[in-house]
Each structure stands twice: as structure tokens, then as C-alpha cells.
Amino acid sequence: MLATGALASAAQSPKYPPVPKSKLFGRIAYSTPGGDIWVMNANGSCRHQVSHSGSGHDFNPSWAPDGRRLIFRTSRGHYQPDLYGNGLEGLFVVDVDGTNELEIEPPTGGMAADWSPRRDRIAFSGLRAGKKFDTLFLMNPDGTGVHDLGTEFGSEGAVWSPAGTRIEYGAHNGDGNWRSGR
User: Fold this and answer.
1) What is the pTM of this model?
2) Which terminus of the chain has a smaller tally of CB atoms within 10 A, N or C?
3) What pLDDT, on a 0 to 100 scale, did the predictor assign at position 6?
4) What sections of 33-158 are H helices per DSSP?
């Protein structure tokens, strides 16, 4: 009975051995409470600041597939006020060493940006002229060639398929019920 109790107690609060840092691979991009974007190796080494938000707030970084650039959302930028509270703000790209930062959002701002697997296009949520809900757009990484994909309702969370031929996204018509679309 005592052994069973000890086993039950151990099962309720398992102790896992720490994972050696040398077994972790990859790189991580993240935002800090102070509002800047940072990058580090998965084992915690080579941590460095990528963006300098000043009085703004930089967040939601997304890696380019080659690992050389990031796109991120920011309260900085020259976008129009978000009249409907969709969360549309500035979109910037930057090299992971912190150089070549470029503001790329359209006049209405954007959010939920994701690089195509070929690095030649960025999908993002933005606001169509005269509409209340955000929709999906594509643009070049330098901010040119903005193209409305014509999604019907508010669309967020664009994620490219591995082949770069389809985009998965969430959509709603204002009723609060999200649906998946492609």
C-alpha cells in the first residue's frame, strides 16, 4: 500500500530530467516586455537585440525561410488609425543582425504576417478600402505589389503551405465564430 501511494504521488508531480543545452537546435525570435525583438539560439547562446522600438512596441516576429530576415508588427510606422479596432499596425522587415530595417505596411496597416516558403511574398491581414473587417493580402518583401486576395470576411493568421501554393487562415463575419479557410 505504501509503494502504491508513493507511485501515485510521483505520478502526480513527475520530475523530468533537464534537457542538456547541447541537444537544442534552431533559433528563436521573440519580443520582450520592453517592446523590442530579440534573437537567440535555442540553447540560449548568441542572444542579441534586432529591433529598437524606442517609445513604440515591436512584436509578433516571423522568420523568413532562409533565416536571414524577420517581419514583425509594431506600433511604430505611418499607418492610418485603426478605426474598427482590428489590431492593424505597422509591419517592418529587418535583417536578423538588426540592419536594413524597412517599414512595408500599406496605408491601413497590417498584422499576422507570414513569409512565403520562397521568400518572394508576404501574406498578411489588412483592411480593404470601405470595409470594416480585415482581409488577406499579399505583398513583396519590400512593401510593393500589394494584392487583395478577396477573402469575404475578416481574415487573420495566414500560414503558407510548405509548397507555397496555398494559404490557411482564420475567418469570421463579425459574429465571433471563427472558421478556417484556404
Assistant:
1) 0.79
2) N
3) 38
4) none
